[in-house]
Amino acid sequence: MIIKGASVFCEDGTFQVKDVFVEDHKIVATEAEVSDKTVVDANGYKLIPGLVDVHSHGACGHDFCDCDVEGVKEILRFEKAHGITSYCPTSMTLSKEMLVDIFATAKEADGIADGARVIGINMEGPFIAPEKKGAQNGAYIQAPSAETFRACQQASGGLIKLVTLAPEMEGSVEFIKELKDEVHISVGHTTADYDTAKAAFEAGADHVTHLYNAMPPLNHRAPGVIGAAADNNHVYAELISDGLHIHGSAIRAAFRMFGPERIVLISDSMMACGMENGEYELGGQKVFMKDRKATLADGTIAGSATCLYDCMKIAMSFDIPEADAIFAATRNPAKSIGVYDRVGSISVGKEADMLLVDDEYHLKQVF
């Protein structure tokens, strides 16, 4: 396939009008390498990388924790249709036995032609602080356990790329040191102060789970996780840019604090994403969604009902520069879980995951 005349988003953050050549699902350097000469006329459109969502629980009425292979396939179809071509189904705080069964469904569901690629799994819990559990089920919280993690990783076929922990939990630093070369470790759902978070990052944690949410706020005398993460240049910070979880000013502040290279836009979407207002579930708990705002019965925000593509557009509406918003939904998440060699940019040798959009970011075609 040959995509002709598109304004292509390049690795340096510029748009350049050029042709893109695809052979056997990969981007190649020259037309001579292409056996299928089908031409897509992309003149007047932009071509950006397929989006990479590293934190999403579900969509279209299905949840990863339903432990339903067909349900996961439906989620993957929804994601691809909305421009997310690489996807990390994300778990909740549940028992080890339940998680083992859930993680096995991801590898079974991957590989459908009309769905997003399962690029990894995000294990959000059960190693979290009860005080900051948010919409997680506190009954299943446990201290960080390498044995529990490895049992889940074995069940997943090695797909787990991220695991969240609260660094104030007993055994956290030991867990980080033991597993930092096996999985990316994210600090989140935590009451940690600056020094505790700093120790976690120095031990090898390199990610923050939904910055601002489920952690102490940034305070000038107590900067907490946010300050510690900003001070450690190897740490990526997730942001839920749905216009509900975080004020636009705080989104802009995060991009300034961390720089456009370290912000990872996520959806944190749950099964209500793409659905009508009504009652849904998240981790076995009832969730009520109205006008994209999903909450538990007590009003606690319970994930989002906005896909990553819309989160990227909302970030742009908050005056985040176009290139920075695209990088935060493509390059940065891919780098944060170690898959940038495969996806996250329109580059020779990578998967040919691309989105054709107009100047207003109406999605025209998904490759």
Automatic annotation (TrEMBL):
Keywords, sorted A to Z: Carbohydrate metabolism, Hydrolase, Metal-binding
UniProt-listed Gene3D superfamilies: Metal-dependent hydrolases, Urease, subunit C, domain 1
InterPro entries: Amidohydro-rel (IPR006680), GlcNAc_6-P_deAcase (IPR003764), Metal-dep_hydrolase_composite (IPR011059), Metal_Hydrolase (IPR032466)
Domain Amidohydrolase-related: 47-359
One Pfam family, short name: Amidohydro_1
EC number assigned by the record: 3.5.1.25
Group of enzyme by EC: hydrolase
GO molecular function list: N-acetylglucosamine-6-phosphate deacetylase activity
NCBIfam families: nagA
PANTHER family: N-ACETYLGLUCOSAMINE-6-PHOSPHATE DEACETYLASE (PTHR11113:SF14)
Family statement: Belongs to the metallo-dependent hydrolases superfamily. NagA family.
Protein name: N-acetylglucosamine-6-phosphate deacetylase
Record gene name: nagA
